[in-house]
Write a structure and sequence with these properties.
alpha+beta, Killer Toxin P4, Chain A, five-stranded antiparallel beta sheet
Length: 122
């Protein structure tokens, strides 16, 4: 597994309720990481969305690992990437971290084809 070199990008617009946004985003990314890491050697990918209860704002995210990674390596790589959120993307409506072995992206607005993604298990 290679984590570096990596880069990040972010949406320049700030969120209105940072605490609620972070809570929903962290839960969503956690579910997606678990699902992607369980993928076989052909597909270590997951995409999904979650809606914040108070603001009713929906967040969209995807995570992906290269197919050569084990379940543990995929999980480790993505968890290492999301630990960069406070540095790269704090308070932002969207962000991404891209490394050689994994990447994630999240946004307030849809950025992938919702119809082509499988629903996550509850």
């Amino acid at each position: 597994m290679e984590f570096g070199p990596y880069f990040w990008m972010y949406n320049p617009v700030n969120v209105t309720d940072e605490n609620e946004f972070n809570e929903v985003l962290n839960a969503l990314l956690g579910r997606l990481i678990n699902f992607a890491a369980l993928g076989d050697s052909r597909r270590k990918f997951a995409a999904g969305n979650a809606t914040a209860e108070k603001s009713q704002q929906t967040m969209y995210a995807l995570v992906q690992c290269t197919p050569d990674l084990t379940q543990q390596q995929c999980s480790d790589c993505l968890n290492q990437a999301i630990k960069l959120i406070p540095t790269c993307c704090s308070k932002r409506q969207g962000g991404r971290v891209v490394s050689p072995s994994c990447h994630f992206r999240y946004e307030k607005d849809p950025f992938y084809d919702l119809a082509s993604t499988s629903p996550l298990p509850p």
